[in-house]
Structures are given as structure tokens and as C-alpha cells.
Here is the input.
Amino acid sequence: MTGKSAKKPAPGPDTPILFTNVRLIDPASGRDGPGSLLVEHGRISAIDPSGSAVPANARHVDGQGAVLAPGLVDLRASLGEPGAEYRETLRSGSEAAVAGGITSIGVMPDTDPAIDTPALLTVIRQRGEEIGLASLYPHGALTRASRGEEMTEMGLLQKAGALAFTDGVHAIGNTKQMRNLLSYAHFLDALVMLHPQDIDLSRGACATSGLQATRLGLPQVTPAAEAMMVARDLRLAEMTGARVHLTNISTAEALDLIRDAKARGLRVSCDTAPPYFSLTEEAIGDYRTYAKLTPPLRLEKDRQAVRAALADGTIDAVTSDHSPADADDKRLPFAQARAGGTGLVTLLGVTLASGLPLLDALRLLTVNPARLLGLEAGTLSVGAKADLCLFDPQSEWTVHAGELPGLAQNTPFDGWTLKGRVLKTFREGREVYTAPATASGHSSST
Amino acid sequence: MSAAAAEPESSPSSSSSEPRFTALPTGPHLLGLEGTGPEEITPFLDLAESYALLSRSRKTPRDVLQGRTLINLFFEDSTRTRTSFELAGKRLGADVVNMTVATSSVNKGETLLDTASTLNAMRCDLLVVRHREAGAPALLAQKVNASVVNAGDGMHEHPTQALLDALTIRRHLGRLDGLEIAICGDVAHSRVARSNLHLLRAMGSRIRLVGPPTLVPSAFGALEGVTLYDNMEDGVRDADVVMCLRVQRERMGGGLIPSAREYFSLFGLDRARLRLARPGALVMHPGPMNRGVEIASDVADSPQSVITEQVEMGVAVRMAVLDRLTRQREKAA
Here is the structure.
């Protein structure tokens, strides 16, 4: 499932491609309509080109009415490597990404060792180029070894290419150190991505407070633990002027705080992941560890609030929150099982199922996250890199854990039927994924 | 109770609507009581009561489990529950093996599944499991061929304890419906409280959960037929049954309650508080008791206390469980 099309003699990387009979959707410009698009030298050279503008040697891709959108930009995904290659590797994760239409990945740095040195960050970037599927943009660790204590060499990491700084799911409990980190990040104009939850309230917890967790006898955390940390971090953002991005926001209360902060003009942004607008704690059932996530799945009213915040623009982006686990990580009593779910392959389909208009859903997956990271990606404008995703919004496929592209199979969406099958993915004009021709594995035709 | 209706040899027919007792596909298990109903519980208690009488006359049928192997797999120490299951198995003729697994190993989960495959290889028929994590017996049940009995999993359930409590109550009060039952103390961390809550609600009694808010989960207040009390006097007033839960020593250090003596002062079941309950109200405790913490010594030893009978019914209930599961399992095979 590497997406290398073995059928035809591979066209050279510089072979021009003409996409015809496609529905072009470009959230950056608001364009949504039938058209054609020409790619030359890895970049978009023309939209609706006249016949004479198309080089004679151009490869023609007939979209048959499918959507041609910018390749998706994923703000954050954990790819296991280094340190947990049995869960996922840069290669297997990249394979899963392009199968999901994702061409740019913000790679989480809370690995083992953490991506807290310029050398390691450079290596990860280069590995991404060698693999040649999706562009990998490793984030820098915010603190050394993501331990929440000493700050990393943010300036050097930034020079090496870090687009954002984060300690992954580890919140920083020491308020004074958090202020120092934000203050320093502000001077570098660096984006800081925080996963907010009150550390003491959430310690050991694996489910949201309520009847379900009480019934099951699981250690629980109040949903307010998220809002409490969001309140602190927003106040620190205001104090320091730092660009703060809050990740995996899952509660109504936290979203209200962020909405207010934005209205007051704070430079703050946030994202969520598909489980938080698609699932509730009910998904845990009788100890289904694939539904054990960080933060834990919430109640229905919070799910509704996340949906509303996607629609009203409070949430800037939807991320895969890809958190690979292997079978042994999950085949444990619930409290001991590793938290997290895969999300790369299902990102597009579950987001499209959110009920948002197609253009709005794609905005959260392309131009918005690209702008947050300052990436030249996520649009269909002439001159932009030809990172493209061709998908059929009506074509259905069923998620089968065990048969998904990539190594990790711990999807919380096992058994879901999703619309929006990815047909082809292109990165800088090169075809990096081609859907299997017929129904099998993770993809089945309409 | 109609012991005559339930000869062990003609155990009540297993109805098809039994979500917990027949949690196939790998075999019938007893993992919890949530979701059970009177149509299942009543005949089960009849069978258990008949075993209580047979035990008293020392005439238990040894052929019921003859040739079957029962393994007590305890990841947490518990002498009384383990002994109770051991006696239950032996009184029905099973070969009983006790395994206590050290909980200090680095990866308990691996131990759990490795243990499951070991037990499968040993062709064990009945597996009694106690584990500190909620859901661990359910996980094992997916992996072993034996019938799994949950003997207590974390803060989740302890179904045989609730069944023996119910049998004890029924023997004394003649019914399980329409009763006011006060469950007092550390409900939050108690699997006994959860199993009792599910069973007694299903039988049509009203439950009062009594204790300070640090020990009583407010979420249960949303359940129909359940009321929360943070005042012991109100909680036990006119109750038919007062069930005290053990307060673990580690809760008393100031994290959840300030001290044992303050707890006793505010929530200990003493003579004066017991007088507020219905005349003849039953005093129960799953044991082991902290005398002078959750219950006064004289109350524990009073004629209203049925605490030692609970222990006796425990063996009978476990015999009935082992019998039922074995019949269901072998019928399904």
C-alpha cells in the first residue's frame, strides 16, 4: 500500500499533469466548482488552462467528477519513531497519511528520545524526504525530553526547521516555567502547541467523570480539568504575547474560554480531533480500549459543543491526533491500556461526516492548519506546490482495524463506514498514493 | 424460601435473556450484575439457598463438579473470598487450585494474558479471578476457554458478594422488593457497593448511598431509585437494611477523610443511629470490619447483625454460581 503505481511505466517527476473533469475545491479562495488544473515542475502552473497552454507530453488524469483539493495538512501526528518503531515508523505513518490524502504532517516530538535537539530534528526532516511520501515537519520539544522542566534550544530548533514547539500530551504543571517558556517563545515568534489538562485532576484518570465511568469503576477526571488549564494558558498567553495553540480541545467550557479570548483579540488558536466531534464516552462500552484516548471521550453535550465550534470558527483546525499503539498496548485492563487512537487514514472521512459543508470541512484540514504553521501548503493557487488530494465524496469505504494502511491499527472508528474515499494523492506533483482498484482492504467502492 | 423448588440436580433452566451469565462466545461467565433482573436472580437465589441447607447437613452433591478444575486466580490478596470459593468448589467435588500472582511485576497486563494462555493449556474449567483493575476479568474471559467468575475487579463489581447479600436479606426479610437499603461509607471505591446497587435496584428496592461527598460518587444520584445522603442519621432512618462498607486505611490519611475518629463520629454505625432504622433492621458488612471506624463493636455483634451469616451464604452462593456456569457451559459445548 505504498501508493507507488506499478502498472504503467512511471512518468518522470517532471511530467506535467493535467487534471480534467474534477471539482476543484480551494478553501483559501472559496472556489468550489468544476474545472481543470495543470501541474508542471511540481507546482500548480494553471487553473482551467486553455488547450494551447497544456504541454503535449502532459499526463491526463480524468477525475470523473471527483473532488480535487489541496493535500491535507495535519498539525500533529505521532509516528512512533524514534523509540517506538513497533507501533509506527516514519515510513508506515507516511503511508497511512497519503492514503488519507494528507501531504504535510506536523510530527510530534515527544518520542524516545524526544526531538529536542536540532540534529535529531534535521534527521527526521531528511528521513521524510528520503521516504518521499508526505512532507514531515517535526515539531520541536518545548522542554528537554518533554519532561516539562528545562526549555529546549528553541532558537536553534527553529533554525533547523521547527514550525512549532510542543510537549505532546504532557501538560506543563509549573506555572512559572510555563510563563518563562511562553515569554521566550514570544521573542522567537514561535508557535507553542499545548495540550491542556490540569495535571493533578487528571493524574491516573482514564475516563470522563459521570455515570459511565462510575458504573465501570474507572478512575475519572472532570471535564473542567481542561478548561482550568485553558484558562491558565490563555492568561499566560495574554501576559507574554506568545502565539499559543491549544490542541485536542474537547469540552464546551474550554471552547467558551477560547471563543472569548479570540473575541478579545488574543493571538490564540485551537484544534480538535475527529473523536471529539464524532464519539462520546459511550464508545468505551464495556472497556473497549481502542476508545481510550487523551483527553478521554466526553459526554454528548461536549460533543455537540465541539461541532458548534467547528462551524462558528472557534476551532481553527482538525488534526489526526494520530497516536499509534500496538495490540499489546491495548490488550490490557482499561486503566493500564495505552491511551490514543490512529487517525491519519480516517481524518478526511470522519471530518466530512461532521455535517459541515464540504468547503468548510476542507478549510479545517488544509489552509487553516497550513497558515498556523506558516507552511506554503493547503491551497490550489497558481504557483503553489502541487500537493493534491483527489477524492470521491460519495464513495464509501468501511474502516477495518487490522486492514488499514500503516502499522498501527488502533482506530476508535473500527466498523464505521465513511464517505469520501481518497483516490489519489500527489505531493509536489508526484503521485504518492493510488487507491487499490477494487473493493478490498480498507477501501471498498460505492 | 422455596428450597424445594430448587434441587441442585434440577437447577433452574437458564433463560435466554441473561446478558451476564451467558456472556458468550467463549463460554458463560459471571462478570457483573449490571443488567440482570428478577427473572434471573430469583431462581438463582433459590438454588443457592438449597445449597445452604445441603451444606448445613453436610450432604452436598460431590458429583456436580466432579472431574472439573477450578482455579482461584488472585492478583490481589483476599483470604476470605478465596477460601469461600475453594470450599464451594470442594463441596461440589471440583479439584481446586489456588494461584496468587504477585502484583509487583512490571507489566501486569502481560502477566494477565500470559496467564490466560497458561491456564488454557491446563484445561481449567472454572476460573475465579480477582484483580485490582476494573475490567480485567472481562478481558480474561475473552481469552480463556474456562468460565470466568469475577471475584472483584478494581472499583467495578463483586457479583458474588452482592448475591450473598441478597440471599441473606431475603432469608431474613422474606423479599427483596420494596426495601429501603442504606449502603454506607466508601461507595466510590467499592465494587461491593456497585454490585449491590445493580442487584437490589433490579429487584425493586430503593438504595440510599450514605457518606461524605469524597466517598460517594454523585453520578449515582442520577439513577432512579437511588438517593444520596451526606448525613448518617437521615441515611439510616427507617431503613430496612444498613450495609456498612469497609473504609480502607489509605483513605483515612487526610486525602479523602480527615481521620478514623472523625469518620466514626460522623458516619460510624452505632447503637443510637441503628435505633433510627426500622425495628429489626439488618446490619450487614462485607468484611473485614474496622471496628470503631465504620461500625461500633456492639452493633457488629448485636442480634440485628447478620455479618457471620453473610459469610455462610457466601459459600452457598458460590456453589450455585459454579454449578450454574458449569451446566451452562457444558450445555453450550
In short: Chain B has a mean pLDDT of 89. Chain B is about 40% helix and 15% strand. Chain B touches chain A at residues 34, 108-110, 112-113, 131, 133-136, 138-139, 153-157, 191, 194, 217, 219-220, 222-223 (CB under 8 Å). Strands of chain B lie at 69-74, 95-100, 126-131, 147-153, 180-184, 206-210, 226-229, 241-244, 282-284.
